[in-house]
Amino acid sequence: MSIIFILNGPNLNMLGTRQPSLYGYETLADIEKDCHRHAAVLDLMVDFRQSNYEGELVSWIQEASRKASGLIINAGAYTHTSVALLDALLLNKQPILEVHLSNIYAREAFRQHSYVTPTASGLIAGLGGYGYRLALTAMGELLKKTMILREEQAHHRAPAGRAERSE
Ligand code: CA2
Fold it and tell me: Is the pLDDT of residue 153 over 90?
């Protein structure tokens, strides 16, 4: 079964305790539970983590490139500051999806630049915890497409291989 890493950056452990008008009433534990439930429906497995430390997030991104089929990331404030996260994400060959609870493009100017976006296949912002569920659905579709493409490529190579051998 495909494993999807879902990584969360600084202060997201505070969700549901403060600023509900901005980030909603759901806690990160609520979102994690919903992700596990939804992943089961999609036949995916989720490894859900949160850290307040940039270096730990970098290590987890590297771990994802070895162990996961896809990566969903809400890098929190590091989204707007971290070249270290960008460099780590650039090394990942798996699909990456960026999630934000709030619509970062409707907020302060400094939140409207993301170091994650150039590495991501897609971005979901402004839909609260529901964005994680949407990202999982999209990841399932991306992985299906990748598998179909690989099967097609293998299929197209086979006849050429046979022709070479028979000549
Ligand atoms: O909208 C998002 O998901 C953000 O990644 C959240 C980050 C923010 O720095 C980004 O610009 C956008 C902040 C997460 C902090 O969450 C808190 C939740 C409750 C109380 C305090 C902080």
Answer: no
Distances (CA, A) of 28 to 89, 129, 145: 23, 8, 30
Mutate to test the pocket of ligand 1, among 99, 104, 105 (most ligand atoms within 8 A of CB): 104
Catalytic annotation, pick one of 23, 78, 115, 132: 23
pLDDT tens string 48-101: 999 999 999 999 999 999 999 999 999 999 999 999 999 999 999 999 999 999
Rounded to the nearest whole angstrom, what is the distance from the C-alpha of residue 47 to the centroid of ligand 1? 20
Ligand 1 centroid to Cα of residue 11, in Å, is: 7
Ligand 1 centroid to residue 151 C-alpha, Å: 40
CATH of the domain at 6: 3.40.50.9100
Residue 51: domain span: 2-166
Tally the domains of the chain: 1
Give the three-class secondary structure for 71. Answer: strand
pTM: 0.91
